[in-house]
Amino acid sequence: MLQRYLIEGRLEAGCDEAGRGCLAGPVTAAAVILPPDFEHPLINDSKQLTEHQRDLLRPIIEREALAWAVAMAWPEEIDHMNILNASIAAMHRAIDALKVRPQALLIDGNRFKPYRDLPHTTIVKGDGKMLSIAAASILAKTHRDEYMRTIAADFPAYHWERNKGYPTPDHRAAIAQCGITPHHRRTFQLLPQPTLFD
């Protein structure tokens, strides 16, 4: 069972992101405030769930949450400010968009920049420990996957509907053959570095 809150009675927003390790597409963040009595047996770190399970849970979280929001930082922003700062910027945008103001933030990972005057706690592997962070991980992942499926239609060679922009062999083969698109992160190592033996 994941923890429902860090401090009982406090309105906490869980925050997480998806897509940090991708070669293409945005990094996507979500912020979720759950009711204090919320529970669901399936909810866990999105990486521990199947795509089908995530897609089942997304409407439940969006319906039951006291507030939720999703935001993105785009490839040109990632190239300009680096992936860590872009991830934090996306989290700040998601918190900005919440219809309910939380009293504190629970952040997956170990790095964050303060958001206004709200206290925050960083929790390593928080998406496997805190219910609200797990819920945020599911929304970030499903919204990003949906976006990648949408843009895949315009760039079919890269198979983003399957690989979602991650550095899979088929994605890298398409980059080698077709070059890059406006959705690629130019500061990332898009192709493996040749070795002395290549």
Q: Could you give a short account of the major beta sheet?
A: 5 strands, mixed
Strand proportion:
15-25%
Give the low-pLDDT segments.
none
Order of helices and strands: EEHEHHEEHHH
Number of strands: 5
CATH topology: Nucleotidyltransferase, domain 5
CATH superfamily: Ribonuclease H-like superfamily/Ribonuclease H
Radius of gyration: 17 Å
Notes on the structure:
The protein has 198 residues and is of the alpha/beta class. It has a single domain (12-178), classed as Ribonuclease H-like superfamily/Ribonuclease H (Nucleotidyltransferase, domain 5). Helix content is 36%, strand content 15%. The protein contains six helices and five strands, in the order E-E-H-E-H-H-E-E-H-H-H. The chain has helices spanning 51-64, 75-81, 83-96, 131-152, 160-163, 169-178; strands spanning 12-18, 27-33, 67-73, 104-108, 120-123. A five-stranded mixed β-sheet has the order 3-2-1-4-5, with helices on both faces. A hairpin with an 8-residue loop joins strand 1 (12-18) and strand 2. Helix 1 crosses helix 4 and helix 2 packs across helix 3.
